[in-house]
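Fill in residues.
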């Protein structure tokens, strides 16, 4: 069966120079540096410290052992009631 070429609406996609560079994994050094800086800034904004009005969120704080025991006891009582 003969090759019919690209589907309608996609003329000459395999001949586009920017697609050939991306297909080969080769980018000009300046474009690669720009993409690298953009990716790094996005990741810093996404995973960096969260600041809200001068307060730095330190993440989750561990619950005291007594409180954890109380929660587990209450949960086991509820589960026991639901199964019986």
């Amino acid at each position: 069966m003969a090759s019919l070429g690209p589907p309608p609406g996609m003329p000459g996609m395999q001949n586009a120079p920017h697609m050939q560079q991306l297909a080969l994994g080769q980018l000009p050094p300046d474009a690669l540096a720009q993409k690298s800086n953009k990716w790094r800034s996005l990741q810093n904004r996404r995973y960096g410290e969260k600041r809200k009005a001068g307060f730095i969120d330190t993440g989750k704080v561990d619950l005291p052992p007594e409180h954890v025991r109380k929660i587990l006891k209450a949960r086991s009582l509820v589960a026991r009631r639901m199964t019986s």
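The first strand starts at residue 51 and ends at 52.
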